[in-house]
Amino acid sequence: MVVLLLTACGGANDETLLDELRVLSMLPQAPEIAPGETTTIDVRIVDPDAVGYRALVWTCTRLGEDCLEDEEGRSPALATVADGRAAVPVTASMALAAVASDSPLPLVSVWALACAADACPLLDDVERGDTIDADVWADPTDWMSDLPIEGTSLALASVQVSTRSADTRHANPTITVSPEAPSVKPGGSVEVEVTITGELGSEARVWGYATAGGFERPSDRPNARLEARLDWIAPDAAGSADGFLLLVDDEGGGALWEGPLTAE
Questions:
Q1: In 10 A of CB 186, how many CB atoms?
Q2: Is residue 229's pLDDT more than 60?
Q3: Does residue 39 sit in the same domain as residue 159?
Q4: How confident is the model at residue 100 (pLDDT cuts 50, 70, 90)?
Q5: Helix (H, G, I), strand (E, B) or coil at 73
C-alpha cells in the first residue's frame, strides 16, 4: 500500500473528534447466541479530559411490554471499568426457546450509560439498591432527554438470538490497519487503510474517531475487497492522539482498532 502524506485541504469532521466522555463501542464477543447461552460484551469508554465517571450496563429483551430480565429478577448493576474497558456478561433468556419456530426471536438490547460524578442520580439509586420502575430499563429513550448534555453518554448495542447451529451463526470479523502507527506533519493528513477478514452482514461501515484532529469524514463502507479508507487530519500542533477505527455490521458483528495517531 502507498501511504499518502498530504496537506489537508478541508477540515476534520467534528463528529470524529472525541472531546468529551463517550461510550465509544459495545462489541459482543459472540454476536449471535442461543436461548440460555451467555456471551460477553466488551464496552469501550473514552474519557479524554479524565473527568472520571461511573458506568451502568444493562440488558433488555422485549417479549411484550417489559424486559424479560426484570421478570426473571436480573437487576442492572454498576460495571467494573478498568482503563476505559468493561467486560459485561449478556445472557439470552431461556424463555425465548418457547417462541414459535416460525417467528423471529427478539434481540437482546444492551444499554450502557456513562456519567461523570454526580451527573446521573439513577446511578446512585442503583448503587444503593433502590427499587427502580421497570419502564426505566425497557425504554431509555423516554428519559434520555433528561440527561445533562455534558458529562453523560448513552449507547445501545444488540445481540442476536437464534436457534441456528453454532457453526452457522454470524461471527465477528477482524481488522488490520496500515500503517500500523499513522503519522503526518502537523496540519497534514494521512490515509489509513482498514483490511477486514471474515464475513460481514449486508451492511457494514468503518467509523473513525480521534482525541485530536479528526477524520475527514465519519465513516467508509468496505469495498468488494473488504477494505475501507479514512483520512486522519492532524491538528496544527505537534503531538499524539488516541485513534480508533470501529467496524460494525447490521448483524451485530464488529471489531475495534485503537492506537496512536501522531503529528510530528
A1: 14
A2: yes
A3: yes
A4: low
A5: coil
Residue position matching grid coordinates 482503563: 83
In this structure, what C-alpha cell is assigned to residue 160? 442476536
Q: Pairing relation of β-strands 254-263 and 183-184?
A: parallel
Q: Where in the sequence is the domain holding 198, given as residue range(s)?
A: 5-17+171-263
User: CA 82, 38, 248, 155 torsion: positive or negative?
Assistant: negative
Count of other CB atoms within 10 angstroms of residue 171: 16
The answer to whether residues 41 and 28 touch, using CB atoms and an 8 Å cutoff, is yes
Q: Which of 125, 152, 167 is the last residue of a domain?
A: 167
The CA distance from 194 to 256, in Å, is 11
Considering the domain architecture, whether residues 198 and 238 belong to the same structural domain is answered as yes
Q: How many CB atoms lie within 10 A of CB 146?
A: 8
Which of the listed residues 143, 167, 191 is the one where a domain comes to its end? Answer: 167
> CB–CB of 92/34 below 8 Å?
yes
What local confidence, expressed as pLDDT, does residue 65 receive? 77
| Least confident span in 4-18, 155-169, 186-200 | 4-18
| For the chain, percent of residues with pLDDT exceeding 90 | 81
What are the distances in angstroms from CA 100 to CA 74, 104, 204?
A: 24, 8, 30
- Highest mean pLDDT, choosing among 67-76, 123-132, 229-238: 229-238
Residue whose C-alpha cell is 473513525:
208
Shared-domain flag, residues 127 and 176: no
Q: How would residue 72 be classed by pLDDT, with cut points 50, 70 and 90?
A: confident
Q: Contact 177/193 with Cβ under 8 angstroms?
A: yes
pLDDT mean across residues, the chain: 92
CATH number at residue 186: 2.60.40.10
